[in-house]
């Protein structure tokens, strides 16, 4: 049984590059984003950890921001010109200060490890059924997203996953995707992006 | 009906832009016709250099063509698709500095990553 409510958070940084101009080939035009930071790690006690990864439904961090601020996004995207809409959205969302609840369809991928010392023991966690992974009484109360100027979180993931420094390839221990257990296809870049500070 | 090798390779070339980070279309597929995605350049990440490929505007994906549905491609042929130019700015880590300089004889970050992925995949 859990001993009480657990909260955890992580701050990631998103840099946006906006490529446009007379000499830019059409296929290269547009805005793109790059994330720096690490997964959220919730310590549930007794050696159990819940990780909210830097990937997930519908399309990672940018999709989560879009869905959390969906009303703002829809308003921005309706304005012409359409080919500048994403850049316009990026310039708009950074000014949002209100904390938003992530809708169920936009949650990051959740995983845990049967044994945190073994990457192959990674397991998917159903956000609607934490009890199935951690035991009776565990449940996800909610996840929120907020635009902040706080410093990027570092070192928490590596502090829990002792093998992180030496791991390479997929968590299945090879350089080939496992077609049956998708969580074994995670790499360290699903937990950490942009390198160490 | 078999598909031609040239057409199928062109499709896999396009698909490199729809896999991995910064994908154009989020189709979520690992099966493209007779090809199965088996690896991508995320395997090059280590904690010391995580995101190196992304920082160099590099992405590659490997497929295994398994079912013999492509003319002139044998079963279990591994096809690697490398993304082309998508960051042509003269500023920052653009393709000009991380890729195009290969033409001058320099070992650019993208050329190094391409070789590393070829060996790893």
What can you see in these coordinates?
The complex is a heterodimer of chains A (197) and B (121). Chain A is of the alpha+beta class and 197 residues long. Chain A has a domain at 13-55 and 107-191. Chain A is built from five helices and nine strands, in the order ββββαααβββαβαβ. In chain A, a hairpin with a 2-residue loop joins β3 (40-45) and β4. The model of chain A has no long low-confidence stretch (mean pLDDT 88). Chain B has 121 residues and is α+β, with helices and mostly antiparallel strands. Chain B has one domain. Helices cover 26% and strands 17% of the residues of chain B. Chain B contains four helices and four strands. Chain B has helices spanning 5-15, 52-55, 95-98, 109-120; strands spanning 31-32, 35-40, 60-65, 77-82. Chain B has a four-stranded antiparallel β-sheet with strand order 1-2-3-4, with helices on both faces. In chain B, a hairpin with a 2-residue loop joins β1 and β2 (35-40). Chain B starts with a helix and ends with a helix. The mean pLDDT of chain B is 86. The chains are: A alpha+beta (197), B alpha+beta (121).
